[in-house]
Amino acid sequence: MSATVYSEPYRLPAGILAMVVHIVFFALLYLGFNWNRQPFSPATMSVELWPDLPDGVTAAPVNPKVAESVKPPPQEKIIKPDIAMPDKKKPDLKAVEVAKPRPDTPKPAEVNPEARLAEQKAASAQAERIKQQEEQTAAINKLVDEYKAKITAKIKRNIGPTNVERDASVIFLVTLLPGGAVLKVELKKSSGNEAYDNAVERAIRKSDPLPLPPDVQLFNRFRELNLVFKPTE
Amino acid sequence: MEVTKDLSFLHLIANASILVQLVMGLLLVVSLMSWWYIFLKMFVIRDEVRLTEEFEDAFWHNQNLNQLYSYANSSSLRDQGALERIFAAGFGEFAKLSKQQGVDASAAMEGTRRAMRATYQREMDRLESHLAFLASVGSVSPYVGLFGTVWGIMNAFRGLANVGQATLAHVAPGIAEALVATAMGLFAAIPAVVAYNRYAHEINRLSTRFDSFTEEFSNVLQRQS
Predict the structure, then answer these.
(1) Domain containing residue B48
(2) Number of structural domains chain B divides into
(3) Burial letters for B187-220: b for 16+ Cβ neighbours within 10 Å, e otherwise?
(4) What pLDDT digit, counting tens, does each position of B38-47 carry?
(5) Is B35 close to A45, i.e. CB distance below 8 A?
(6) Which residue of chain A is at minimal alpha-carbon distance from B42?
(7) Which residues of chain B make contact with A19, given a CB cutoff of 8 A?
(8) What ipTM was assigned to the predicted interfaces of this complex?
(9) pLDDT tens for residues A49-75?
């Protein structure tokens, strides 16, 4: 045997088979594996924003303006106000009210035209802007009122028939969580009739997810609610 | 940092850093070669086992060694098994030595065994060729793939440092593309290790058969001399 100068057989078939194995492997990898090819849809990215800052910080710039049109009916409607703003907000509101138009009372109405004129002279654009803001805040206030009415309506539906004097009224401080869950129900002022107080408290807890506006920005206005209930209605 | 990330396979590879791409390319080449050798050895060893069986059969059923020898010399290299070549080398050497004057029987046997030994070693070398490559691929390519992955993840985290608010979406594509390197390393290594163990075992068995044949054939020749 001189030498086994022996070109190995099967070079080509082996090479082809090796290629086939790799092609199959990559095909499986490419097709069989669900690579995330879709871009993230906005739905998967949606974030629930919790306005964490307390009322004093976030609400300060927005609320005063908003409040002034919430307030217009306070004195008259105090007889039948479904909801009163929490006490601590009241000073804020009053401070702003002075500068804002109040159709109900003549005195601010006198002040306002003057202010308007001055502003027009100074910058009519600013007036326009303020007007827009006012419209905006008015719309927001309308929405807030609407939802507060809805909340009281829902609770009232859950108050069973009671036997109480007509002029009794009970005030509850209700603390809400974002989403409408009732966190705390606190009796602020008793109606004098324990049965009625309890009935109202039960009704508040029973109507647990209270209706809230879909705009989470407005939640600050609903965090703490002073709810006034009267058996008359 | 864009939030919409295309995680398709090709995109992952195309977006990887140069070093990771190099590692992946290296692993692809290594994997192709190792599979090539796997199939090559598969065919060669299968043929070798078949030829060995055929030759043993012919040897033990046909006691005419001259006929076997002429047949072995006439057949093409491709149809010759290793055992046939060992036989041909041994018998050719023995025939030459017995014709020479002044060579005693034990010296002739010595020469014959040496000739068979040489052919046996050559044949074993041929059979075992490329097995070392498979063994190296099996042990090294996971580490190479791991290296690519570590490098890719390092890059992914370094990129993360530049982003103020880190989310999973920032790291995930980098890690996914880095892990492709490990996957490729394992894909190259697992078949190589399996094939190496299997082929080493089969070649070992063949070598035992060749050894015992050499001994038995030596006995046959000694009886004839």
Answers:
(1) 9-62+130-224
(2) 1
(3) bbbebbbebbeebeebbeebbebbeebbeebbee
(4) 999 999 999 9
(5) no
(6) A14
(7) 32
(8) 0.75
(9) 666 665 554 444 545 555 455 555 445
